[in-house]
Amino acid sequence: MRWWLRALVLCAMGVGAAGIAQTAALPAAVPSVDSLQKQLAADQAKLMDWAQLDHYKAENAALAAPTAAEKRVVFYGDSITQNWAGRNNIFFPGKPYVGRGISGQTSAQMVVRFHQDVVDLRPAVVVILAGTNDVAENTGPMTPEMTLDNFRSMAEMARAIGIKVVICSIPPAGDFPWRHGLEPVEKIRALNAMLEAWAKSGGLVWVDYYSVLADASGAMKSGLSLDGVHPTAAGYAIMAPLAEAGIQKALGK
């Protein structure tokens, strides 16, 4: 029996830390019962709120409805959007832009929370950036068609009530530091081509981050990323005017 499985079984049987330490064949580096219990509790919490609907619950409740003249924009996505939102006082000073990114999320999780984190905020425009974690298989293997279907679902919800939609290309990545060996370069290129064709055929605004961030190999250009995936301030400075141009185009300006 694997050491970690044995530890969990012993824990479930009520064997304390001392008892586990006395059992044979467990390596010296075995986690404590307390750490295992904490990890189990964290994993259970994730399963109970798979899409992290509670993440922005308080912020959404505190956010006032937009005024008649306000053109609210929601930036919607994963960690790249979450990090971006924390910098919007630098790149979009005075703009009514709201960040609703959650680190690690796939497009499937984003579909589930789209109504409460986008629709209910009554924006004029939603800027959707997703797909990195789909390719990284954060919630399991996903085909490009599955990702595209999730984008379709989000766009359909938005357009049904008059929210303008901006679709962003997936930024380049030569590898994922949290999941090595998936060889994402060609997968991202192919998925971007699919998303671009779909967005343009449906009259959605397309913003191409990929072309200005990628080097010849398909990885992020030197100096534009913290870890090969997440942009630095210099990377965001390149992305900002492209996002703003896409927003203005969506608003018909």
Task: Map the helices and strands.
Blueprint: H1 3-12, H2 17-22, H3 33-48, H4 57-62, E1 73-77, H5 79-85, H6 88-91, E2 97-101, H7 107-117, E3 125-129, H8 132-135, H9 144-160, E4 164-168, H10 184-201, E5 205-207, H11 210-213, H12 233-250
Parallel strand pairs: 1-2, 1-3, 3-4, 4-5
Describe the protein.
The protein is of the alpha/beta class. Helices cover 48% and strands 9% of the residues. It has two domains: 3-48, no CATH class; 57-250, 3-Layer(aba) Sandwich (Rossmann fold), CATH 3.40.50. The protein has a five-stranded parallel β-sheet, with helices on both faces. Strand 4 (164-168), helix 10 and strand 5 form a beta-alpha-beta unit. It is globular.
Concise structural overview:
The chain has 253 residues and is of the alpha/beta class.
Q: Which geometry do the CA atoms define?
A: globular
Strand order of the largest sheet: 2-1-3-4-5
CATH homologous superfamily caption of the largest domain: SGNH hydrolase
In whole angstroms, how far apart are the ends? 65 Å
Strand content: 5-15%
User: Major β-sheet, in short?
Assistant: 5 strands, parallel
**Percent of residues in helices:** 40-55%
Poorly predicted runs are 1-13, 15-24
What count of helical segments does DSSP give?
Answer: 12
**CATH architecture identity of the largest domain:** 3-Layer(aba) Sandwich
Number of strands: 5
* Topology order in helix (H) and strand (E) letters: HHHHEHHEHEHHEHEHH
What structural class results from the helix and strand content? alpha/beta
Q: Overall mean pLDDT score?
A: 88
User: CATH first level of the largest domain: which class?
Assistant: Alpha Beta
Taking all Cα atoms into account, the compactness measure Rg is: 21 Å
Count of domain modules: 2
CATH-defined topology of the largest domain: Rossmann fold
